[in-house]
Amino acid sequence: MSxxxxxxxxxxxxxxxxxxxxxxxxxxxxxxxxxxEFVTILGPSGCGKSTLLNVLSGLDTDFQGGAAIERDxxxxxxxxxxxxxxxxxxxxxxxxxxxxxxxMDAVGIPSSEWAGRCTKWIELVGLNGFADFYPLQLSGxxxxxxxxxxxxxxxxxxxxxxxxxSALDELTARRMRQELLTLWEANRRTVLFVTHNxxxxxxxxxxxxxxxxxxxxxxxxxxxxxxxxxxxxYDDPAQYETQKDVLQRLMxxxx
Length: 255
Ligand SMILES: Nc1ncnc2c1ncn2[C@@H]1O[C@H](COP(=O)(O)OP(=O)(O)OP(=O)(O)O)[C@@H](O)[C@H]1O
Ligand SMILES: [Mg+2]
Prior knowledge:
10 strands; binds adenosine-5'-triphosphate; binds magnesium ion
């Protein structure tokens, strides 16, 4: 897997509205994620995490600086990206199965593979029996799990994940994190994950980037997690020690 992320000197201003003046959301942000690396951005609410992912995914094109996906060191617009938002964003007029099929169709996965992929992912996220339900017939957590199935079913090269588990109950969230790591360990995709949960960040990542709250947010600290063995376990005391360190660093830049 040779797809990487390069964000260089990225600045983002939101224009003034009738309610207020313009807002510098991101200031000279630099982030690199190497092929197959799992990097998490940790930062308080409003520090610009979603803004950063929106720019990187191509949803927001109004910025200064660089935000690129590279393949073998060359900028590409053809990488298969899955973007999992903070909220499910399912198409309400389509069933769970049909939402997943829609995403597979969009990235050109042959229709002969759709049924197998749907069955696999619906089962993995624990939605067996709900494939033909519409989003409004599901709970919020079930909708988010359907969105997770949709993201993984396209076999992405890059995963952009914006607090994907924050709406889930803790037991389901734990299961989904374990599942994510099992998948990632079997087939190392390049992941940029966003959260404000420090333990989740430690449990999942190779590296944590801490973002300072704006105006003018930027990455102000980095924690490498090479000392934590993989596969990760929730009962590993070293994780809790590391979480303490991460929390202290976070508080230094937030308070
Ligand atoms: N469309 C917009 N117009 C104006 N300001 C915006 C817009 N979107 C975001 N902002 C501002 O940019 C800043 C960063 O917002 P963003 O959604 O990226 O934060 P976040 O770190 O993802 O927060 P959270 O953890 O709560 O999701 C906030 O101050 C927000 O008010
Ligand atoms: Mg956000």
